[in-house]
Amino acid sequence: LEDLQDAFDFCFKVHYQPGQERNRDPEYIQELQTLQAKLQNLDRQRRGVLAQMQQLLGRSETLQELLQQELGNWRLRQQHLCLGAPGDANLRPLETWFTELGQGLFQLRQLLRMLNDLRQKVTYERDPLVAETPLLEQRLQEQLTHLLKSAFVVEQQPSTPNAGKRPLVLRTGSKFSARARLLVKLHDRNHRMEAKIHIDRWAPPLPETPPDRPRGFRRFNILTSSSKTLLAGDSPQEGLICDFQYLDGGLGVAGGSGPSGDRGATSWQGPLVVTEELHLITFTLAYAYCGLELELETTTLPFVIISNNNQLSSAWASILWFNMLSSDPK
C-alpha cells in the first residue's frame, strides 16, 4: 500500500496541472487517465486490506468467545478444588491461548496506526480509510479491553500455610498468601505495572441501627505491603504474576463504636456472626502496553476470617454454602 501510494503521489504532483490550455492536450488527457487508474488500484487495495481486517476481527471474536468458555470452566474447576474435589487448575494452556490472541490483536492495532499514517499523507473523495478505520479501531479496542480484563485472574485463592484442604478460612493475626496472574504475557519492560490488594473494597452499606446498639461489619486491613510490581516468573515459562505472601489481616470496625480491638466473635454486635461474614480480596492492576493503558481488576472467592479454631466448622459451612449456591463472588 505504501509503495502504491508513493507512486500515485509522485505522479499526481508531476503530471496533474489543471488548466484550460492543457485540458485539450491528448497527451495530458492520457496522463490523467493513467493517474486515475493508479488511484482506482490504490482504492481497491485499501478496501481489500480493510476487508481482511474485518475478517480477522470476526475470527478473533469467535476465538475470544471460546476462550471465555474455557476460562469459565477453569474457574469452576478451581472453585471445586478449593472445596476439596480432585482436578487440575493448570493455567498454562489458557495463558498460551490468551497471549497468542493478544499478540494478534496488538499487531492489528499497529497496522491500523500505519493505515492512519498513510491516510494522513494521501486521501481522496470516498476514501475507505476515512470511513472504516475509526470503526475498526473502536471494534479492536473493545476486543483488547475485554480480553485483558478477563485475563487478570486469581491463580491462588487466599490460604494460610497449613490450610490443608480448606484454603478459604483464615485467622486473624495469621499470615496468609494469595496470587494473581495476567494470562496475556505482554508487558512493557520500561513501564512499572503495579498491582494493589484490597480487602472488602466493595463492602455493602451499613444497616440503620439504634444508637444504643452499635453495629458494624468487621473490616480487615492488610497490615503488610498492599502493593507489588507485576513481574515475570523466574523462568521464561512462567507468566506475569503478583504473588502476595505473608499477608496479615488486621481487624478494624466499619461503622458503629464496636470493640475494634476484639478478635473474637462472642462479644461482637455486628449484623452477622463472624463465621457468616464473607470477605473479598480485590486485586487491581495498572496495565500499560504499546500505548494502551487499562485498569484491570479481579476478585478472590469469598472467604471467612475467624479468631479461634472453635469457629472453623461454622466458617467452612459458610464457604460451602456460598460456593454451592452462587457463582458471582461480589
TrEMBL record:
GO terms for molecular function: DNA binding; DNA-binding transcription factor activity. It is found in: Cytoplasm; Nucleus. InterPro entries: p53-like_TF_DNA-bd_sf, STAT, STAT_TF_alpha, STAT_TF_CC, STAT_TF_DNA-bd, STAT_TF_DNA-bd_N. Keywords: Coiled coil, Cytoplasm, DNA-binding, Nucleus, Phosphoprotein, SH2 domain, Transcription, Transcription regulation. Residues 32-59 form a coiled coil. Residues 1-143 form the STAT transcription factor all-alpha domain. GO terms for biological process: signal transduction. It comes from the Eukaryota. Residues 157-306 form the STAT transcription factor DNA-binding domain. GO terms for cellular component: cytoplasm; nucleus. Its main location: cytoplasm. SUPFAM superfamilies: p53-like transcription factors (SSF49417), STAT (SSF47655). This is STAT2 protein. It comes from Pomatorhinus ruficollis (streak-breasted scimitar babbler). The gene is Stat2.
